[in-house]
Structure formats: structure tokens, C-alpha cells
Amino acid sequence: MLVVVVVVVLALRGACGAVAEMGIGVNWGTVSFRKLKPTTVVDLLKDNKIGKVKLFEAEEEVLKALMGSGIEIMLGIPNEHLSLLSSSPSAADMWIQKNVSAYMSKHGALIRYIAVGNEPFLTSYNGEFQNFVIPAIQNLQESLVKANLAGSVKLVVPCNADAYESTVPSQGAFRPELTQIMTQLVQFLNSNGAPFIVNIYPFLSLYDNGEFPQDYAFFEGTTHPVIDGPNVYTNAFDGNYDTLVAALSKLGYGQMPIVIGEIGWPSDGAMGANITAARVFNQGLVNHVLSNKGTPLRPNSPPMDIYIFSLLDEGAKSILPGSFERHWGIFSFDGKAKYPLNLGLGNKELKNAKNVEYLPSRWCVASASSDMNNVANHVRMACSVADCTTLNYGGSCNGIGEKGNISYAFNSYYQLQMQDARSCNFDGLGVVTSRDPSVGACRFILGVKDKDSDSSASQITTTYKYHLCILLIILIIQWIF
């Protein structure tokens, strides 16, 4: 499955003997209905002195916005592209030319890593991508050589923590079916001076396992430590990290540099996912890493880099894993900091995005005088298009009452439709208000003007008519049956 440049230089020496600058970066995902302009996001990164960013795919406007910013980039290749890149050297050449060479001029984008796939060895993929990884890396490496970029751009493969397993950290080993591929991968990484990338999510361990000790997921001590011989683990991060160290050691690469590609805590959408927990986890993580204590198997040697997941909430992400998937950001979708967080970069707290263009201060709510007996289909339609995940059990808007739920759904749809007046009709059940209906921690969003807003009027009308037609079909089917 959610930022950092720390002005601390550590003598972290991997198998290649390279010295790395410890850094905290962020993952910048763009799966959102309401996107800030890329230039606004880059300014947000710069204002918060965040010097490293991880992208999940090559988007032209994002890469253009990052040109000349001085921000180091880890550029992702989606898993779906691995098959072609593994079988076609010319496709690899074209990808490098289009997405890397084109942006790396003298004052261009600082692309430092290319992430070949995203957790391609994930158990749930049932091996769908794993045989493409090594051939794709080999083709892409040859393409980098041809482009004279092999010395400055390194290929890496972000792995999920389920790539390795053990009951205690010191016995860590890669899954048996991955041993050969992982051996090839770490040999390649080592020969090219690249780190091993791993994504670690203590939240998911807690969410998926009712018996997982809650305090072990954080960094404030635990009543359930893991005892591994002479080593005592008081938090899930250290235990998971050292399990990887042990797995790498079994392959003969125990000193390989490690980068945490994703780690964070969601702030909404599930029990245990809230503002307080997210702040405590992320601040604890930053403090833990910057203390330079390292882990029992790597004392005084923290990870080479850590990329917090994530920078911004992504309201269009799939919620199959859980509604929390849309709430990993340390900033909300509009660039507002959710909570105080000191990243150790010079600012004691996060700074909000500047010059965000909001829609007018108008919200759509349920009419006080209307009969709400037939409102269910309207709510269902609104939430099938807009994001209503905060209404779910454990969410920040779960306790605002039936009328509040209806209003939240109506407003989410209304803002997504750029406040088109017709999108707040709902057969007369909705009404526009200039009074913010937010209640406590439940925030009724106000839309922002994205890059398409000036030319989207006709699209809004078409979209609105489409959803009304869908709703009409639902009503007709229910009437017939």
C-alpha cells in the first residue's frame, strides 16, 4: 500500500561502500478527484523543505512542475507495464527516453531512482508480475547505459514486507518461492550501488490482526515486547526492519543499504485511523529515525531514506483494502496540514499550501423541510461517485446523525461537480447554504479549482445527466420488482 530531507549526513556504508545522506521524503500520489495544481504541490514541498519525493508513475505535468525544484525524485513504473518492458528492449528505450531523458536537462528534474513496479512480489498477486521484474530491470539498465544515465539514475524495486517472513527478526528469510529472484535482485542492486526498497505498515498489521498489540505499532514503548535472544524489540518497525536485515544476510548482503519506500498512518476511515494516532505514529517515526539509534541488528545505522505515505489524501483510490486508503495524507487533498508534525527539517510544524483556489463558500445540505423517505437512492448515487468514506464505522463523520449523513453525501457530490446548481437538487431534497455545516472533527469539504475547472462546464452537465439517468434506472427496477 503515505516526507523528508534531513540535514544530517550519516556514514551509512553499504556493500558498495557508498556514503548516503539520510533523508525523509514523501510519496506523492495523484489518484484524486480534486487535484491541486502540480506547481502548487511543488511549492508545498519546498515550503516544508521536503527534498525527496516518490511518484507512482510518470505524469508529464508533475514532472514538469518538479523541473528546477532541486527535489530528488523516485519515479515509479506501474506493474502493468512490466510485461512489455521485460520482453521489449525497444519499449524500455522508449520509456527511458520519454519519461527520464526528456526531463533531465541541466536545470531539469533530479530523477535519482526508477522504481520498477510497485510491490510486484505481493502475495495477493499470486506471482502475476514476479517473473517480469528481473528481465525488465535488465532491459531498463541497458537503456540507461545507452542514454548515458546509468551513473546518475539507479533502478530499484519497492517490495512489500510480505516478501520475507519469520517468527523472530533474527530468523528472517525471503519467501521460498522468491529466493532465486531476490538473489538476482540484490546482486543487481549491489553491483549498481542501489538500495533495497521496502514498504512497512504497522497500521495494517494492527488492522488485519485483532490480536496484534496496539502499543507495539507505535514508538512509545510496549507491554508486549518481542524477545529475540539478546535483542528486545519494543516497536513493530524495528522488528520488521531487522527481519529484512536477516533475510538479506542469508543471501550474503547483510550490509546492503535499505530505504523505506512507504510508511505512515491513516487519519480516517477505520477504527484506529484518526488524527491523534496518525500524529503520534508519524512524529514517533521521525523522532526514532533522527535519533540515529538504529535497530538491534543495525545499531547506530537508521535507514538510508524514509518516504512517508503520504503527502496528500487521495479520494479516488480503491477502498477494497479499507476506507482508510483514502486518508493516508499528512495533508488533506487541498494542502492543509491535518496536525502538527515536525519533520526535523527546520520547520516546527507543517506549512499549508499557498494560493489554493477554492470554490465559493457554498455547501449542499439536506433540506430541513423535505420528506427524506425516498432519500436512500440519492445518497447511494452521490456516494457511488464522490468520496463518503468518513461516514463509515470509525470515520470522523460517523456520528453526525441521519440528516448529517445525507447532507455530507449531497455536499461531497456537489463539490465534485464544481458546485453546479443542478447537482444539489436531488428531487428537491437538497439545498445550497453559505453556512459551513461541518460538525466537530467532521469536515464538510469545499472543492478546489483544478486545471480542468475553467473548461469543464459542459462535462459537468453531461456527468450530472448521466448520474440522474442511472438513478432513474435504479428507481424503475425497484418499482418493477
Commentary on this structure:
Helix 4 (89-99) crosses helix 5. The strands form 5 sheets. Strands 1, 2, 3, 4, 5, 6, 7, 10, 13 and 16 form a 10-stranded mixed β-sheet that branches. By secondary structure, this protein is an alpha/beta fold. Helices cover 32% and strands 16% of the residues. The protein has helices at residues 38-47, 60-66, 82-87, 89-99, 130-146, 179-191, 202-208, 236-250, 275-290, 376-385, 401-416, 457-480, and strands spanning 8-13, 19-28, 52-55, 72-77, 110-116, 154-156, 158-160, 164-165, 173-174, 196-199, 226-228, 231-233, 258-263, 294-295, 298-299, 305-308, 363-366, 430-433.
Topology overview:
Elements: E1 8-13, E2 19-28, H1 38-47, E3 52-55, H2 60-66, E4 72-77, H3 82-87, H4 89-99, E5 110-116, H5 130-146, E6 154-156, E7 158-160, E8 164-165, E9 173-174, H6 179-191, E10 196-199, H7 202-208, E11 226-228, E12 231-233, H8 236-250, E13 258-263, H9 275-290, E14 294-295, E15 298-299, E16 305-308, E17 363-366, H10 376-385, H11 401-416, E18 430-433, H12 457-480
Helix pairs in contact: 4-5, 10-11
Q: Biggest β-sheet, characterized? A: 10 strands, mixed
Which spans have pLDDT < 50 for at least 5 consecutive residues? 1-20, 452-465
- The DSSP helix count reads 12
C-alpha geometry: globular
Q: Would you tell me the overall average pLDDT?
A: 91
Helix residue percentage:
25-40%
Residue share in β-strands: 15-25%
- Gyration radius (Cα, Å) is 24 Å
**SSE order, one letter for each helix or strand:** EEHEHEHHEHEEEEHEHEEHEHEEEEHHEH
Cα distance, first to last residue? 41 Å
Structural class by secondary-structure content: alpha/beta
Number of strand segments: 18
